[in-house]
Amino acid sequence: MAAPSAAQRIVIENAAIATVDANDTEYASGHLVVADNKIESIGAGRAPEGLENVVRRIDATGHLVTPGLVNTHHHFYQWITRGLATDHNLFNWLVALYPTWSRIDESMVRVAAQGSLAMMARGGVTTAMDHHYVYPQGSGDLSGAIIGAASDMGVRFTLARGSMDRSEKDGGLPPDFAVETTEGALAATEETVRKYHDASFDAMTQVAVAPCSPFSISTELLREGAALGRRLGVRMHTHGSETVEEEKFCHELFGMGPTDYFESTGFLGEDVWMAHCVHMNDSDIEAFARTKTGVAHCPSSNARLAAGIARVPDMLKAGVPVGLGVDGTASNESGELHTELRNALLINRLGAHREAALNARQALRLGTYGGAQVLGRADNIGSLEAGKLADFVLWKIDGLGHSSIADPVTAIVFGAAAPVTASFVNGKQIVENNRLLFADEEQIARDARAEAQRLARITAQS
């Protein structure tokens, strides 16, 4: 039997480092050593002497190294419907866009996923997720197209396999041909989990069970979705408490608010995370804390759709796991997560806690370790610690936009979006000097424009 090959090492030195570990350990000038796909050591000063099989050394002077950013909520397909219905609240926005979204097909979804992933990856995202819930009849292999795009780009990925079974005829918003039957949705979701989900420590692809929202699914789909997720041992995701209209809808239809409704169907728990959670009272927050249900906070989208300000400081104080989300790019046209660090901090300071709401390090934690918690991966990503996977980013902070800000973490949170000199996923570099290494950005832009125009033509003709 051949001897196992020795680990190949990458050594990064002379960097400011924010580990985002349990003690928020930071180094003004430190080192990070990667062995294959894991962090081998991290600490102050230069790397240990005598390391073998060092294939690359990086002098990171003028940079801050952080864990890679973790996106906890997105809708990739919306990349080709950006800039529409720009002055609408959530329900009116959905009514305006569902007729267009219902015409998507596999080619459109593949290109939209490429655009969404590219924008995030070159901005420091190393773990992405997509909540895809629109599966029009005859539209092709949409889940496969999304997962393939993430694999090609080299990004760690969770597909939240969504579903809808409440169409216009049942009092929902989507057209009838754009929803699945309850049985069909559950069967397709199970097939996707069995085909793509990887439960291993260094998994690049995972799948979650993700019925869309209370107003687009039946109670049966929500309840059976929770049972399916637990039978398969995967996480569950949905939208919750996003708007006052949703609150009213739940009270009228179910006789209770969204959180109580979710709990009644088994859709709260440490294996569940919800998007938005803007309109949460004290009892709702207590229920999330008690059950360890996670939250994907999407500050830009919440502002774009005038949904309100989520009570993030209160959630964190109660012990609710909270991460950050881009949300779909039809309600956050920038499509970036690193700008959400700043937006989360600023928007929450407009709320009841004012300047005490969030600080720079709390914002960074939301975008890294908090996201890892929400996706159920805090044991392997989200902080820079020996033994964890080598997902990290080198932010350039000695340029015009940041050089006069003394504190590196303040620089990347309060300052302009910092350039990404390098981004690594699983020990493999995917971004260099703000450019993707495994994708042609110009080609993606051309393809996205063409598919957006094709979708607009199909919608107009229908």
From TrEMBL:
<protein>
    <submittedName>
        <fullName>8-oxoguanine deaminase</fullName>
        <ecNumber>3.5.4.32</ecNumber>
    </submittedName>
</protein>
<keyword id="KW-0378">Hydrolase</keyword>
<feature type="domain" description="Amidohydrolase-related">
    <location>
        <begin position="64"/>
        <end position="429"/>
    </location>
</feature>
<dbReference type="Pfam" id="PF01979">
    <property type="entry name" value="Amidohydro_1"/>
</dbReference>
<dbReference type="InterPro" id="IPR006680">
    <property type="entry name" value="Amidohydro-rel"/>
</dbReference>
<dbReference type="InterPro" id="IPR050287">
    <property type="entry name" value="MTA/SAH_deaminase"/>
</dbReference>
<dbReference type="InterPro" id="IPR011059">
    <property type="entry name" value="Metal-dep_hydrolase_composite"/>
</dbReference>
<dbReference type="InterPro" id="IPR032466">
    <property type="entry name" value="Metal_Hydrolase"/>
</dbReference>
<dbReference type="GO" id="GO:0102127">
    <property type="term" value="F:8-oxoguanine deaminase activity"/>
</dbReference>
